[in-house]
Amino acid sequence: MLDLAIIGGGPAGLSAGLYATRGGLKNVVMFEKGMPGGQITLSSEIENYPGVAQVMDGISFMTPWNEQCMRFGLKHEMLNIKQILKNDDGNFSIKIEGGEIKLAKAVIVCTGSYPKKAGFKGEDEFFGKGVSTCATCDGFFYKNKEVAVLGGGDTALEEALYLANICSKVHLIHRRDEFRAAPLIIEKVKKNEKIELITCASIEEAYGDKTGLMGVKIKVKDGSIKDLKVPGIFTFVGLNVRNEILKQDDGKFLCQMEEGGQVSVDLKMQTSVKGLFAAGDLRKDAPKQVICAAGDGAVAALSAISYIENLH
Length: 312
What we know:
Blueprint: E1 2-7, H1 11-22, E2 28-31, H2 58-70, E3 75-77, E4 81-86, E5 92-96, E6 101-109, E7 113-115, E8 131-132, H3 135-138, E9 146-150, H4 154-164, E10 169-173, H5 183-191, E11 195-198, E12 202-209, E13 212-219, E14 225-228, E15 233-235, E16 239-241, E17 276-278, H6 290-309
Parallel strand pairs: 1-2, 1-6, 2-3, 6-17, 8-15, 9-10, 9-15, 10-11
Antiparallel strand pairs: 4-5, 5-6, 7-16, 12-13, 13-14
Helix pairs in contact: 1-2, 1-6, 4-5
């Protein structure tokens, strides 16, 4: 039986693994189907992590985390977890894709989030063929071409700046007249001559043919439709949490949840189920910042250590 199962390998999961193993737990496994690092590995630049003065892309930033967090005995298993169950004896069953079950005394869920869809016509049809949620992944395909970015938060503006280094022009579309990003980022965007701001606007439709996206139709402030002929649009309109593994066979969740699907936790990252902790984007009121996710993971691990010690 595992002392601790950690589900998810982003900043929260890796930090939880580091603190749990360094704190004395011997049998700790982090389940992450892909390579550890999390959603932040898709970021074009990180400049606000204390102690890391150099501006770095997400992959470069997360690379040393793996080595450091595995140093004290954390194991990584590339398995896809389907469900977590609480057993009558107080332990947990971790159901793995394919039917295998592993037992654990405590569980930290750090499954994170994924980009929301914007909901405009043609979004699904042209996803991967002109519609993208990752400028770092797909920006190169639009070198010296015009593209559009949809969104008004930090991520949207940061990625617009990143794309401005590659593309001939970036049309930044936002439904409000003011942005929700940090003032410093807004200032950089407004000063960038390659970025055109299209505010109080929404995308009505993405259109194209079998070869891919050819443009988007935008409803602007006066109600008229503007035809923006671009081969690529990048959407950054928020995140949905990955909470599927907490769903039980009866359709209910294993622990108490918030209206938006986030997990309810206290300041120790403890859920309503003893021995089950949640950290990072998945938990309620998460700021969705790397440093906060890492802090959550550390808190959850220390709480898990305390919980396991009190079992004896």
